[in-house]
Design a protein that fits this description.
The protein is mainly alpha-helical and about 140 residues long. The protein has helices at about 5-35, 35-65, 65-95, 110-135, and strands at about 105, 105-110. The relative contact order is 0.06.
Length: about 140
């Protein structure tokens, strides 16, 4: 009666019920995992995106010297153009009517002073270029 009795039958029924309950729980867990699959994929890609973003940010800092060089180029070019305009306009206009005692090398004192100011600015810009070059090589 112990092997074929009610106790054995009840134990087998209980094991079968637990097996069914476990299968239901596994099915519910599978549904939950499938529903959150997108969230898991996003969680897996966020560190990679942050890493790539950090690398790009650092690369931008390393490469940014070229934009500084470009800005210096445009500033130097603008200074040289202004100097050329000053020589052409001030020297040409006052060359015929200007008093010779009020001129230095064919330019008025005002134009000559303005040219000296521009030359000083151009020299400061050229020192920035040399310091930029030596900071990149060392």
């Amino acid at each position: 009666s112990v092997l074929f009795g009610d106790l054995t039958r009840l134990a087998l029924i209980q094991v079968q019920k637990q097996k069914v309950d476990l299968e239901k729980a596994m099915t519910a867990l599978d549904k939950l995992l499938k529903a959150n699959e997108l969230n898991f994929q996003l969680l897996a890609t966020i560190p990679a995106v942050l890493l790539i973003g950090g690398v790009m940010y650092k690369l931008k800092d390393v490469i940014s010297f070229s934009s500084d060089k470009k800005g210096l180029y445009y500033a130097m070019r603008a200074n040289i153009r202004t100097m050329e305009r000053t020589i052409n306009l001030k020297g040409g206009d006052e060359g015929i009517t200007g008093d010779a005692s009020q001129r230095i090398g064919g330019l008025s004192f005002e134009a000559f002073g303005y040219l000296l100011q521009r030359i000083t600015k151009l020299r400061a810009l050229s020192s920035q270029i040399s310091s930029m070059f030596f900071s990149l090589t060392s």
